[in-house]
UniProtKB/TrEMBL annotation:
Keyword Ribonucleoprotein: no
Record InterPro entries: GH (IPR017853), GH_1_N_CS (IPR033132), Glyco_hydro_1 (IPR001360)
Name of the molecule in the record: Uncharacterized protein
Domain of life: Eukaryota
Keywords: Glycoprotein, Glycosidase, Hydrolase
GO BP: carbohydrate metabolic process
Pfam families reported for this sequence: Glyco_hydro_1
SUPFAM superfamilies per UniProt: (Trans)glycosidases
Family membership: Belongs to the glycosyl hydrolase 1 family.
Gene3D superfamilies: Glycosidases
Keyword presence, Hydrolase: yes
MF (Gene Ontology): hydrolase activity, hydrolyzing O-glycosyl compounds
Subunit details: Homodimer.
Length: 408
Protein backbone atom coordinates (compact mmCIF):
# COMPACT_ATOMS: atom_id res chain seq x y z
CA UNK A 1 0.00 0.00 0.00
CA UNK A 2 1.30 3.42 -0.95
CA UNK A 3 2.39 5.43 2.08
CA UNK A 4 2.48 2.47 4.45
CA UNK A 5 5.56 0.83 5.98
CA UNK A 6 5.25 -2.57 7.63
CA UNK A 7 7.73 -3.38 10.37
CA UNK A 8 8.50 -4.87 13.76
CA UNK A 9 10.37 -3.59 16.79
CA UNK A 10 12.41 -4.59 19.84
CA UNK A 11 14.49 -3.03 22.60
CA UNK A 12 18.08 -3.99 23.42
CA UNK A 13 17.49 -4.88 27.07
CA UNK A 14 14.46 -6.98 26.17
CA UNK A 15 16.23 -9.29 23.74
CA UNK A 16 20.03 -9.07 23.70
CA UNK A 17 21.13 -10.82 26.87
CA UNK A 18 24.94 -11.04 27.20
CA UNK A 19 24.59 -8.37 29.86
CA UNK A 20 28.27 -8.21 30.86
CA UNK A 21 30.01 -10.00 28.00
CA UNK A 22 32.58 -8.65 25.54
CA UNK A 23 33.12 -5.51 27.60
CA UNK A 24 29.53 -4.29 28.00
CA UNK A 25 28.91 -2.02 30.97
CA UNK A 26 26.10 -2.34 33.48
CA UNK A 27 22.80 -0.54 32.85
CA UNK A 28 20.29 0.66 35.43
CA UNK A 29 17.98 -2.16 34.33
CA UNK A 30 20.74 -4.73 34.87
CA UNK A 31 21.26 -3.47 38.40
CA UNK A 32 17.52 -3.24 39.09
CA UNK A 33 17.14 -6.93 38.30
CA UNK A 34 20.28 -8.00 40.11
CA UNK A 35 19.20 -6.26 43.31
CA UNK A 36 15.84 -8.04 43.53
CA UNK A 37 13.49 -5.30 42.36
CA UNK A 38 11.95 -7.33 39.53
CA UNK A 39 9.07 -9.81 39.70
CA UNK A 40 10.25 -13.21 40.99
CA UNK A 41 13.85 -11.89 40.93
CA UNK A 42 13.98 -12.36 37.17
CA UNK A 43 16.76 -10.82 35.10
CA UNK A 44 17.47 -10.21 31.43
CA UNK A 45 21.00 -11.62 31.68
CA UNK A 46 20.20 -13.99 28.79
CA UNK A 47 16.77 -12.81 27.58
CA UNK A 48 16.36 -13.94 23.94
CA UNK A 49 20.13 -14.31 23.59
CA UNK A 50 19.91 -12.07 20.53
CA UNK A 51 23.50 -10.87 20.97
CA UNK A 52 24.63 -14.32 19.84
CA UNK A 53 21.79 -14.97 17.41
CA UNK A 54 21.93 -12.04 15.03
CA UNK A 55 21.96 -14.15 11.88
CA UNK A 56 19.07 -16.33 13.05
CA UNK A 57 17.01 -13.33 14.18
CA UNK A 58 17.39 -11.64 10.80
CA UNK A 59 16.52 -14.94 9.12
CA UNK A 60 13.27 -15.01 11.11
CA UNK A 61 12.63 -11.36 10.25
CA UNK A 62 12.94 -12.11 6.55
CA UNK A 63 10.10 -14.61 6.93
CA UNK A 64 7.82 -11.77 8.06
CA UNK A 65 8.72 -9.65 5.00
CA UNK A 66 8.97 -6.37 6.95
CA UNK A 67 10.12 -3.19 5.29
CA UNK A 68 11.57 -1.86 8.55
CA UNK A 69 13.02 -3.12 11.82
CA UNK A 70 13.16 -0.83 14.85
CA UNK A 71 15.77 -1.80 17.44
CA UNK A 72 17.76 0.05 20.05
CA UNK A 73 21.43 0.46 20.70
CA UNK A 74 22.43 -0.38 24.26
CA UNK A 75 24.32 2.71 25.40
CA UNK A 76 26.52 0.76 27.90
CA UNK A 77 27.33 -1.88 25.28
CA UNK A 78 29.27 0.60 23.20
CA UNK A 79 30.21 3.09 25.95
CA UNK A 80 30.64 0.93 29.10
CA UNK A 81 30.98 3.93 31.41
CA UNK A 82 28.56 6.05 29.40
CA UNK A 83 31.19 8.31 27.83
CA UNK A 84 33.29 8.15 24.69
CA UNK A 85 36.43 7.90 26.79
CA UNK A 86 36.01 4.12 26.70
CA UNK A 87 34.60 2.68 23.48
CA UNK A 88 33.80 -1.02 23.33
CA UNK A 89 34.74 -2.07 19.80
CA UNK A 90 33.01 -5.46 20.11
CA UNK A 91 29.75 -3.76 20.92
CA UNK A 92 30.16 -1.43 17.95
CA UNK A 93 30.89 -4.41 15.70
CA UNK A 94 27.73 -6.16 16.93
CA UNK A 95 25.47 -3.32 15.82
CA UNK A 96 27.36 -2.80 12.59
CA UNK A 97 26.91 -6.47 11.73
CA UNK A 98 23.20 -6.28 12.55
CA UNK A 99 22.70 -3.20 10.37
CA UNK A 100 24.54 -4.76 7.44
CA UNK A 101 22.57 -7.97 7.78
CA UNK A 102 19.28 -6.07 7.75
CA UNK A 103 20.23 -4.09 4.66
CA UNK A 104 21.37 -7.24 2.88
CA UNK A 105 17.86 -8.57 3.58
CA UNK A 106 16.21 -5.40 2.20
CA UNK A 107 15.04 -4.39 5.68
CA UNK A 108 15.41 -0.72 6.65
CA UNK A 109 16.93 -0.25 10.13
CA UNK A 110 15.27 2.25 12.46
CA UNK A 111 17.62 2.81 15.39
CA UNK A 112 16.62 4.00 18.85
CA UNK A 113 19.39 5.70 20.81
CA UNK A 114 17.76 5.42 24.24
CA UNK A 115 15.28 2.69 25.19
CA UNK A 116 15.58 3.14 28.98
CA UNK A 117 18.88 1.25 29.63
CA UNK A 118 21.00 4.10 30.98
CA UNK A 119 24.60 3.20 31.85
CA UNK A 120 24.77 2.67 35.62
CA UNK A 121 27.97 4.72 35.69
CA UNK A 122 25.99 7.77 34.57
CA UNK A 123 23.22 7.11 37.06
CA UNK A 124 25.86 7.22 39.78
CA UNK A 125 26.46 10.82 38.66
CA UNK A 126 22.77 11.69 38.87
CA UNK A 127 21.46 10.28 35.60
CA UNK A 128 18.72 12.37 34.01
CA UNK A 129 18.57 14.53 37.15
CA UNK A 130 21.98 15.95 36.25
CA UNK A 131 21.91 18.46 33.37
CA UNK A 132 25.45 17.46 32.38
CA UNK A 133 23.97 14.25 30.94
CA UNK A 134 22.61 16.30 28.02
CA UNK A 135 26.07 16.80 26.52
CA UNK A 136 27.02 13.22 27.39
CA UNK A 137 23.98 11.98 25.47
CA UNK A 138 24.82 14.26 22.55
CA UNK A 139 28.35 12.82 22.41
CA UNK A 140 26.90 9.30 22.39
CA UNK A 141 24.47 10.23 19.61
CA UNK A 142 27.28 11.90 17.67
CA UNK A 143 29.27 8.67 17.77
CA UNK A 144 26.29 6.64 16.56
CA UNK A 145 25.54 9.06 13.74
CA UNK A 146 29.16 9.09 12.57
CA UNK A 147 29.58 5.31 12.91
CA UNK A 148 26.27 3.95 11.63
CA UNK A 149 24.67 6.92 9.88
CA UNK A 150 26.00 6.03 6.45
CA UNK A 151 23.59 3.07 6.57
CA UNK A 152 20.87 4.17 9.01
CA UNK A 153 18.30 6.67 7.74
CA UNK A 154 15.79 6.58 10.60
CA UNK A 155 16.79 7.59 14.13
CA UNK A 156 14.78 7.77 17.36
CA UNK A 157 16.28 9.72 20.24
CA UNK A 158 14.01 8.51 23.08
CA UNK A 159 11.53 5.66 23.27
CA UNK A 160 8.56 6.55 25.47
CA UNK A 161 10.01 9.38 27.59
CA UNK A 162 6.75 9.48 29.56
CA UNK A 163 7.58 6.03 30.94
CA UNK A 164 11.11 7.15 31.76
CA UNK A 165 9.84 10.22 33.58
CA UNK A 166 6.74 8.81 35.26
CA UNK A 167 7.70 5.21 36.10
CA UNK A 168 11.47 5.64 36.41
CA UNK A 169 11.66 9.01 38.13
CA UNK A 170 8.04 9.58 39.23
CA UNK A 171 6.63 6.52 40.95
CA UNK A 172 9.99 4.72 41.08
CA UNK A 173 8.41 1.53 39.75
CA UNK A 174 11.09 1.34 37.04
CA UNK A 175 14.81 1.90 37.52
CA UNK A 176 16.43 3.94 38.82
CA UNK A 177 13.55 3.94 41.30
CA UNK A 178 13.56 7.68 42.01
CA UNK A 179 10.66 10.09 42.56
CA UNK A 180 11.56 13.20 40.57
CA UNK A 181 9.47 13.57 37.39
CA UNK A 182 11.23 16.86 36.61
CA UNK A 183 13.67 14.85 34.48
CA UNK A 184 11.22 15.21 31.56
CA UNK A 185 12.56 18.72 31.08
CA UNK A 186 16.12 17.41 30.74
CA UNK A 187 15.03 14.66 28.36
CA UNK A 188 13.28 17.16 26.07
CA UNK A 189 16.33 19.41 25.94
CA UNK A 190 18.59 16.42 25.23
CA UNK A 191 16.30 15.32 22.40
CA UNK A 192 16.29 18.78 20.86
CA UNK A 193 20.05 19.10 21.05
CA UNK A 194 20.56 15.73 19.32
CA UNK A 195 18.08 16.67 16.58
CA UNK A 196 19.98 19.91 15.94
CA UNK A 197 23.27 18.01 15.94
CA UNK A 198 22.01 15.73 13.19
CA UNK A 199 20.39 18.58 11.31
CA UNK A 200 23.53 20.73 11.33
CA UNK A 201 26.25 18.11 10.99
CA UNK A 202 24.89 14.99 9.27
CA UNK A 203 21.63 15.53 7.45
CA UNK A 204 23.05 16.97 4.23
CA UNK A 205 25.36 13.98 3.73
CA UNK A 206 23.37 11.13 5.29
CA UNK A 207 19.86 12.29 4.31
CA UNK A 208 18.25 10.67 7.35
CA UNK A 209 15.39 11.55 9.66
CA UNK A 210 15.28 11.97 13.45
CA UNK A 211 12.28 11.79 15.77
CA UNK A 212 11.11 10.29 19.05
CA UNK A 213 8.48 7.76 20.13
CA UNK A 214 5.76 8.99 22.49
CA UNK A 215 3.41 6.59 24.24
CA UNK A 216 -0.22 7.34 24.97
CA UNK A 217 -3.39 5.53 25.87
CA UNK A 218 -6.64 6.85 24.45
CA UNK A 219 -8.92 8.74 26.84
CA UNK A 220 -12.66 8.43 26.19
CA UNK A 221 -15.07 10.50 28.32
CA UNK A 222 -16.99 8.14 30.60
CA UNK A 223 -20.09 10.19 29.95
CA UNK A 224 -19.68 11.94 26.58
CA UNK A 225 -22.55 14.31 27.31
CA UNK A 226 -20.86 15.46 30.53
CA UNK A 227 -18.66 18.46 29.75
CA UNK A 228 -16.55 17.87 32.88
CA UNK A 229 -15.71 14.33 31.73
CA UNK A 230 -14.84 15.66 28.28
CA UNK A 231 -12.45 18.18 29.82
CA UNK A 232 -10.99 15.50 32.10
CA UNK A 233 -10.27 13.34 29.05
CA UNK A 234 -8.48 16.25 27.43
CA UNK A 235 -6.41 16.76 30.58
CA UNK A 236 -5.45 13.09 30.59
CA UNK A 237 -4.21 13.25 26.99
CA UNK A 238 -2.27 16.44 27.67
CA UNK A 239 -0.73 15.04 30.87
CA UNK A 240 0.40 11.89 29.04
CA UNK A 241 0.99 12.80 25.40
CA UNK A 242 0.99 16.60 25.35
CA UNK A 243 3.67 16.73 28.06
CA UNK A 244 6.21 15.81 25.36
CA UNK A 245 4.38 16.29 22.06
CA UNK A 246 3.33 19.90 22.61
CA UNK A 247 6.86 21.29 23.11
CA UNK A 248 8.24 19.39 20.11
CA UNK A 249 5.37 19.64 17.64
CA UNK A 250 3.50 22.82 18.59
CA UNK A 251 5.27 25.77 20.21
CA UNK A 252 8.31 24.65 22.23
CA UNK A 253 6.43 24.82 25.52
CA UNK A 254 4.19 22.68 27.68
CA UNK A 255 0.40 22.70 27.03
CA UNK A 256 -1.53 25.53 28.64
CA UNK A 257 -3.94 22.96 30.08
CA UNK A 258 -1.06 21.23 31.84
CA UNK A 259 0.37 24.47 33.22
CA UNK A 260 -2.94 25.89 34.42
CA UNK A 261 -4.02 22.60 36.04
CA UNK A 262 -0.78 22.29 38.01
CA UNK A 263 -1.03 25.94 39.06
CA UNK A 264 -4.63 25.46 40.19
CA UNK A 265 -3.84 22.36 42.24
CA UNK A 266 -0.81 24.02 43.86
CA UNK A 267 -2.98 26.95 44.91
CA UNK A 268 -5.51 24.61 46.50
CA UNK A 269 -2.90 22.72 48.53
CA UNK A 270 -0.91 23.94 51.50
CA UNK A 271 2.37 23.21 49.72
CA UNK A 272 3.25 22.91 46.04
CA UNK A 273 2.35 19.43 44.81
CA UNK A 274 4.20 19.65 41.49
CA UNK A 275 6.51 22.00 39.68
CA UNK A 276 6.64 22.33 35.91
CA UNK A 277 10.03 23.72 34.83
CA UNK A 278 10.09 26.74 32.55
CA UNK A 279 11.60 26.95 29.08
CA UNK A 280 13.33 30.19 28.21
CA UNK A 281 12.24 31.86 24.97
CA UNK A 282 15.48 30.70 23.38
CA UNK A 283 14.84 27.12 24.53
CA UNK A 284 11.29 27.22 23.17
CA UNK A 285 12.53 28.10 19.69
CA UNK A 286 15.26 25.47 20.10
CA UNK A 287 12.83 22.66 21.04
CA UNK A 288 9.99 23.48 18.63
CA UNK A 289 9.99 21.46 15.42
CA UNK A 290 12.69 18.99 16.44
CA UNK A 291 11.13 15.90 14.86
CA UNK A 292 10.94 14.67 11.28
CA UNK A 293 8.21 12.17 12.14
CA UNK A 294 5.83 11.36 14.99
CA UNK A 295 6.57 8.02 16.63
CA UNK A 296 3.55 6.71 18.52
CA UNK A 297 3.32 3.84 20.99
CA UNK A 298 -0.17 2.68 22.01
CA UNK A 299 -1.56 -0.32 23.88
CA UNK A 300 -4.94 0.40 25.47
CA UNK A 301 -7.67 2.93 26.30
CA UNK A 302 -9.52 4.24 29.35
CA UNK A 303 -12.85 5.76 30.23
CA UNK A 304 -12.16 9.02 32.03
CA UNK A 305 -14.33 10.89 34.48
CA UNK A 306 -13.76 14.16 36.29
CA UNK A 307 -12.76 14.35 39.93
CA UNK A 308 -13.78 17.57 41.63
CA UNK A 309 -11.47 17.32 44.64
CA UNK A 310 -8.14 15.74 43.80
CA UNK A 311 -5.84 14.94 46.68
CA UNK A 312 -2.70 16.95 47.37
CA UNK A 313 -0.28 14.17 46.49
CA UNK A 314 2.31 14.24 43.67
CA UNK A 315 0.59 11.76 41.37
CA UNK A 316 -0.35 12.85 37.86
CA UNK A 317 -3.84 11.29 38.19
CA UNK A 318 -4.59 13.31 41.32
CA UNK A 319 -3.06 16.47 39.92
CA UNK A 320 -5.06 16.05 36.72
CA UNK A 321 -8.35 15.69 38.63
CA UNK A 322 -9.41 12.69 36.57
CA UNK A 323 -10.31 9.11 37.35
CA UNK A 324 -9.74 6.12 35.03
CA UNK A 325 -12.26 3.36 34.39
CA UNK A 326 -12.65 0.27 32.23
CA UNK A 327 -15.71 -0.82 30.28
CA UNK A 328 -16.53 -4.36 31.47
CA UNK A 329 -17.06 -5.39 27.84
CA UNK A 330 -13.43 -4.71 26.98
CA UNK A 331 -11.44 -7.99 26.89
CA UNK A 332 -8.55 -8.10 29.36
CA UNK A 333 -5.11 -9.43 28.51
CA UNK A 334 -2.54 -11.08 30.77
CA UNK A 335 -1.64 -7.56 31.89
CA UNK A 336 -3.94 -5.90 34.41
CA UNK A 337 -3.72 -2.54 32.63
CA UNK A 338 -4.00 -3.59 28.98
CA UNK A 339 -7.53 -4.09 27.68
CA UNK A 340 -8.40 -4.69 24.04
CA UNK A 341 -9.98 -1.49 22.68
CA UNK A 342 -9.05 -1.32 18.97
CA UNK A 343 -11.12 1.78 18.14
CA UNK A 344 -9.06 3.71 20.69
CA UNK A 345 -6.08 3.56 18.34
CA UNK A 346 -8.08 5.10 15.49
CA UNK A 347 -9.30 7.93 17.70
CA UNK A 348 -5.79 8.52 19.02
CA UNK A 349 -4.41 8.68 15.47
CA UNK A 350 -7.06 11.26 14.61
CA UNK A 351 -6.15 13.28 17.71
CA UNK A 352 -2.42 13.19 16.87
CA UNK A 353 -3.10 14.20 13.29
CA UNK A 354 -5.33 17.11 14.28
CA UNK A 355 -3.28 18.28 17.25
CA UNK A 356 0.31 17.79 16.11
CA UNK A 357 1.04 16.61 12.58
CA UNK A 358 -1.71 17.37 10.08
CA UNK A 359 -0.52 15.96 6.78
CA UNK A 360 2.93 17.48 7.14
CA UNK A 361 4.93 14.67 8.73
CA UNK A 362 4.44 10.88 8.89
CA UNK A 363 3.22 8.95 11.90
CA UNK A 364 4.94 5.67 12.79
CA UNK A 365 3.15 3.33 15.16
CA UNK A 366 6.31 2.11 16.82
CA UNK A 367 4.86 0.17 19.75
CA UNK A 368 1.71 -1.96 19.94
CA UNK A 369 0.86 -5.44 21.18
CA UNK A 370 -0.45 -7.48 24.08
CA UNK A 371 0.85 -10.04 26.59
CA UNK A 372 -0.70 -13.48 26.93
CA UNK A 373 -0.45 -16.09 29.66
CA UNK A 374 1.97 -18.95 29.08
CA UNK A 375 -0.22 -21.92 28.22
CA UNK A 376 2.68 -24.09 27.09
CA UNK A 377 1.26 -24.11 23.57
CA UNK A 378 3.56 -22.16 21.27
CA UNK A 379 1.29 -22.62 18.25
CA UNK A 380 -2.11 -21.57 19.62
CA UNK A 381 -1.76 -17.80 19.79
CA UNK A 382 -5.19 -16.84 18.53
CA UNK A 383 -5.76 -14.08 21.10
CA UNK A 384 -2.69 -12.15 19.96
CA UNK A 385 -3.48 -12.76 16.30
CA UNK A 386 -6.98 -11.37 16.84
CA UNK A 387 -5.59 -8.36 18.73
CA UNK A 388 -3.22 -7.42 15.91
CA UNK A 389 -5.87 -8.03 13.25
CA UNK A 390 -8.32 -5.68 14.94
CA UNK A 391 -5.78 -2.96 15.72
CA UNK A 392 -4.29 -3.04 12.22
CA UNK A 393 -7.78 -2.61 10.78
CA UNK A 394 -8.32 0.45 12.95
CA UNK A 395 -4.97 1.90 11.88
CA UNK A 396 -6.09 1.44 8.26
CA UNK A 397 -9.33 3.30 8.98
CA UNK A 398 -7.32 6.06 10.63
CA UNK A 399 -5.12 6.42 7.57
CA UNK A 400 -8.08 6.65 5.22
CA UNK A 401 -9.98 9.21 7.30
CA UNK A 402 -7.18 11.42 8.57
CA UNK A 403 -4.87 11.47 5.55
CA UNK A 404 -2.12 9.98 7.69
CA UNK A 405 0.24 9.00 4.92
CA UNK A 406 2.62 6.70 6.74
CA UNK A 407 1.94 4.21 9.50
CA UNK A 408 4.05 1.47 11.10
Amino acid sequence: MLGFLWGTSTGAFNIEGAWAEDGKGESIWDQFGHTGHVYMNQTADVACDSYYKTSYDVYLLRGLHPQMYKFSVSWPRIFPDGTNETINSKGVDYYSKLINSLLDSNIEPMVTLFHWDLPQALQALGGWQNDSIIDTFVNYADFCFSTFGDRVKFWITFHEPWVISYAGYGTGEHPPGITDPGVAHTVLKAHAKVWHLYNDKYRSQQLGKVGLVLNSDWAEPKTPTNSEDVRASERYLQFMLGWFAHPVFVNGDYPDILKSQIQEVNQQCSTAVAQLPLFTEEEKSWVKGTADFFGLSHYTSHLVSAVTNGTCTPDYKNIGNFSLHVDPSWPQTASSWIHVVPWGLRRLLKFVSQEYTGSKIPIYIAGNGMPTKDSGDLINDTLRVDYFHRYINEALKGMEKSNTHTSF
